[in-house]
Write a structure and sequence with these properties.
GO terms for molecular function: lipoate synthase activity. With 319 residues, this protein is an alpha/beta fold. Helices cover 38% and strands 13% of the residues. The chain has 12 helices and 10 strands. The strands form 2 sheets. Strands 1-2-5-6-7-8-9-10 form an 8-stranded mixed β-sheet, sandwiched between helices. A two-stranded parallel sheet has the order 3-4. Helix 5 runs parallel beside helix 6 and helix 6 packs parallel to helix 7. The protein is globular, with a radius of gyration of 19 Å.
Length: 319
Amino acid sequence: MSETTIPQPPRLRHPEKAHRSDQAQPKKPDWIRVKAPTSEGYRQTRDILRENRLSTVCEEAGCPNVGECWSQGHATMMIMGEICTRGCSFCNVITGKPQALDVFEPGRVAHAVQKLGLKHVVITSVDRDDLDDGGAEHFAQTIRAIRHRSPDATIEVLTPDFLKSRPGALEAVVEARPDVFNHNLETVPGLYPTVRPGARYFHSLRLLQRVKELDPAMFTKSGIMVGLGEDRQGVLQVMDDMRAADIDFMTIGQYLQPTPKHHRVDRFVTPEEFAGYEKSAYGKGFLMVSATPLTRSSYHAGDDFARLRAARLARLGRA
């Protein structure tokens, strides 16, 4: 959201959710609360993003970690506009008809990455079902532009599922050689009809498996939210499904309800339960696991990438 934008009420920002009855938003426990962003580093990061007219999922999705990450100069760029063609019940990104792609955006992203001095950058996007390739080539162009301006930076992409895209869309992104390919499953398959109605669980799983088939050396990553109504057995089954698809890195975080019109918070999962999920995931063979209440896909992504790479080298050494 730009500084000049007036925040829209849920019925305007999310017209597809306007007919829903309000869901009570429970009080957050102490382990969820974060400080408001006020640091000089936060302001510098914000200014660089504004100067380059870039959107971030940090703001659009209302991430609770924005103050911490931006204070360190880390931001997750959201390409292809601020309007998504889907209306997932958990998501705070605007739903509607997107504008045409900005052909200069990849260059502006690359310039911002260089100016911020990022060593690891995460690029995500809205869903663009209106585009023939779902925006795959725009992802590829952005990766190439960053490589040109910041050749030493590592690149992580968090892509849509390309469910309605023409054949070859996924291949275009993989051929651009990001260091990490991330696509979130978001929740257990039984909750897809209410949480992620425009997506298909096994399509998303197959997408990640296909990345490994195209490039076995590329790191793959996926994440889910808890507190949506799933049970422990369902989460453990998702872990098994991810490992069957040879996914390297799993993230698990607490779902937070953006507005009363969004999917309700079923419960707040305790830090002890998250620790149990982390232990189980490592036991199933993931190279890297991040499971905390405040975990998000790109939270501490640079540090996690370094640990991910070290974990692979250690495993190869043992082999």
